[in-house]
Design brief:
about 170 residues; alpha/beta; six-stranded parallel sheet; 6 helices; globular; binds S-adenosylmethionine
């Protein structure tokens, strides 16, 4: 089971980024995406709507209790941050530790509280330069999990081709 916790969502300002964090998490196989920060019903609903149309069972929800999400998680807890240890230096250890265990990946928006650094198993950087939670999440999940290709019960599905018209509607 893979869960992604997105901290510090700011309604309005972070809508597109948070939506893309969710879609990225889903594409790389997250079972659950939890948003913390400002409660933003529209952003959550738009993600659920996309998941409904494109399939899969990814759960999307909001929490005020983000510390509990981290503290109570049973499995390996990884926080992605530009200040963390380099992914290339830790990848073998991470792969070994993730095998057969639940995985929690935490990404931020604005400054992440020091508490998070102290209450995860790993603080991992995807390069030690500032960039984006979307990029960091995609690279990290691609390294440790890989792309998910099958999404059950989709209304629409792309047939890979050179022609974008070859999108077809499935019967439910
Ligand atoms: N100073 C922040 C930090 O701690 O990484 C950068 C804020 S950045 C706008 C928002 C989020 O993107 C961060 O909380 C982190 O999860 C992710 N992020 C940005 N750069 C990263 C990097 N080089 N490696 C891993 N994660 C990164």
């Amino acid at each position: 089971m893979t869960k992604v916790l997105r901290l510090g969502h700011r309604a309005g300002r972070d809508d597109r980024i948070s939506t893309h964090v969710g879609l990225t998490a889903r594409q790389w196989g997250a079972d659950e995406i939890v948003f913390a920060g400002e409660r933003d019903v529209n952003m959550l609903e738009s993600q659920r709507d996309i998941i409904h149309r494109w399939g899969g069972k990814t759960e999307v929800r909001y929490t005020e209790e983000w510390k509990e999400e981290i503290r109570d998680f049973e499995g390996l807890k990884v926080h992605l941050t530009m200040y963390g240890e380099k992914i290339d230096d830790k990848i073998d250890q991470l792969e070994e530790e993730i095998e057969d265990r639940n995985l929690l990946v935490v990404v931020g928006a604005e400054k992440v509280p020091r508490w998070v650094y102290k209450n995860v198993d790993y603080n991992i950087s995807v390069g030690n330069q500032p960039h984006s939670e979307i990029a960091a999440l995609a690279v990290f999940l691609d390294r440790v999990k890989g792309l998910k290709e099958d999404f059950e019960d989709a209304d629409i599905e792309v047939e890979p081709s050179q022609d974008r018209k070859l999108t077809r509607k499935k019967q439910k």
